[in-house]
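Help wanted!
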Amino acid sequence: MKIAVLGTGMVGRALAARLAELGHAVTIGTRNPDETLARTGDDAFAAWAAANPAVGLAAFTDAASAAELAINATSGGAALEVLALAGQENLTGKVLVDIANPLDLSAGMPPTLFVKDTDSLGEQIQRAHPDALVVKTLNTLNASLMADPAKLGEASTVFVSGNDAAAKATVSGLLAEMGHQDIIDLGDITTARGTEMLLPVWLRLWGALGTPEFNFKIVR
Amino acid sequence: MKIAVLGTGMVGRALAARLAELGHAVTIGTRNPDETLARTGDDAFAAWAAANPAVGLAAFTDAASAAELAINATSGGAALEVLALAGQENLTGKVLVDIANPLDLSAGMPPTLFVKDTDSLGEQIQRAHPDALVVKTLNTLNASLMADPAKLGEASTVFVSGNDAAAKATVSGLLAEMGHQDIIDLGDITTARGTEMLLPVWLRLWGALGTPEFNFKIVR
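Answered by r_m:
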């Protein structure tokens, strides 16, 4: 499948590398590819790109227009702006996977959520892109486990929320390819409120356990 | 241990019966014992009390004053009022286990939370009773599994939040007696924000799975 991963951060890179490894044609979207490649530092994108030659890099709009499925891997606060740059017309009729969390870091740690309880980032994205098929998923575990949950050595759970059953089936197929064995369909996109509100306890668990390498499993 | 369970509902009954079965001296607290025993209907307290003769019934203030440890098993919205009736002087220096959730059902289903993200019911209770040792726990699973988690056939996780390490150790001991094998200490009482915010996804999972007989397990 032709996949656009919108976002050049750790989460976007982890998913892009994994999906490319699985045989998908993956392009990472960014504001300005030249500027992204010119960045220096320990986690410079150019070095990562050189180690992952199968993954392309393009402007948000080009990545989205060429893709069959797009993944919002931006920080939550940038999501609506980035998706606007990708272009509503480039997302029409396509599956738009939202893996971001609405974290508000403006008041320091721990972060709060800039939308919650009566609305969610997933719903904001669906309203902003009514012709895209938004599926919220993977926002409840860290990047390395999103891409390769088998690392934990025990099956754990991921959730999907969205209004379109076929879109959720497509996304569940990708999740299964990555190794997710327990995928719970929570219902329509309003159920993203629940998974986004998992973040506060996830952050406290990271603190208590001393590692982000854990995941929720729904035992039943 | 002499334990007061404040609240005559399903959650209070399940915990009271289990703790009595384990050999504790349990008294359920209520506003007016005579009125509570006079109620009729399918889930009348009098019938339950007849089947559970080891569990006492007393006014909130009497139950709390006689107890070494008190459990807030009220609905979240009633918690502060009930604890005021129990009496601040009757809770001083005692472990106060808060298992309630701040559910707001005023706008119908699904409920929202009347406090969240920057504060929690657990913190509200601790502020209202500064001399009590508040421990938030058990608010992330249903009553029957709170009391007997072994029913699931697989170990799952419960959380404790509180400012006093000795109080958390006491509560963790009770949890272990009831069969909880994986107890994660999240930190101080502010970490109750995280576990209270689990409720929205818990409610959606109930809908998706068709049963409340499930629990979170933290796989790591």
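OP: Thanks! One thing I noticed: Chain B touches chain A through 38 residues (CB under 8 Å).
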